[in-house]
Amino acid sequence: MKLPATRKEALKLGIKFYKTNKPCKHGHNSKRYTSSKGCYECVKATWDESNQRKKDRYDKNWVQELLKRKNYVLKATYNMNFMDYRNIVASQNYKCPLCLKNETFMEDYQLRNKAKGYLGDLVVDHCHKSGKVRGALCQDCNRALGGFKDDINILSRAIEYLEERG
Ligand SMILES: [Zn+2]
Ligand SMILES: [Zn+2]
Fold first, then answer.
1. Which ligand is nearest to the CA of 100?
2. Ligand nearest to the CA of 122
């Protein structure tokens, strides 16, 4: 599709880009953003640079970056910090209280892929009604509870069912 030659036209048509034939001040003869008049290549270069900076920072201090992210998520979701989370896990003897599997913590296997669980792979479990944090569970048990809708009646029927039909 041929882009409109002026911003005015692009605005009228509701098109994201327009293309004059005047190069930007960095000499790119590329399309412009209708919203900001910004040169596409300049914007892209700025983005690439900022992503590279982020990546460099992460590569250099990835544990601190992980910790920052974890703190941010815990604060936003449960109004707790990483130490609160670690205290919960410690109070459970570093195990999932349901299946008793040990947590994964600071294990360096496949670090880059597993970084998510590097600072502890037990997930905070909370009551959806009261909002109260109940503990920290492994992913499987957390998902299982969700599957039973945190409903004691369904869970006890599931136990009966397994006992009777096993
Ligand atoms: Zn440019
Ligand atoms: Zn479990």
1. 2
2. 2
For residue 109, pLDDT beyond 80:
no
Alpha carbons 163 and 147: distance in angstroms, whole number: 19
Tell the burial category of 136 from Cβ atoms under 10 Å away from its Cβ (0-12, 13-18, 19+).
buried
145: amino acid identity, one letter: L
Centre of ligand 1 to C-alpha 57, Å, is: 26
CA of 48 to the centre of ligand 2 (A): 41
> Residue 114 pLDDT > 60, yes or no?
no
Bigger pLDDT: 111 vs 120: 120
Ligand 1 centre distance from Cα of residue 24 (Å) = 5
Domains in the chain: boundaries: 7-55, 80-165
Give the predicted TM-score (pTM) of the model: 0.67
Q: Which ligand is nearest to the CA of 45?
A: 1
CATH number of 80-165: 3.40.1800.10
Cβ neighbours, 10 Å, residue 99 = 11
10-32 pLDDT, tens digit each: 999 999 999 998 999 999 999 99
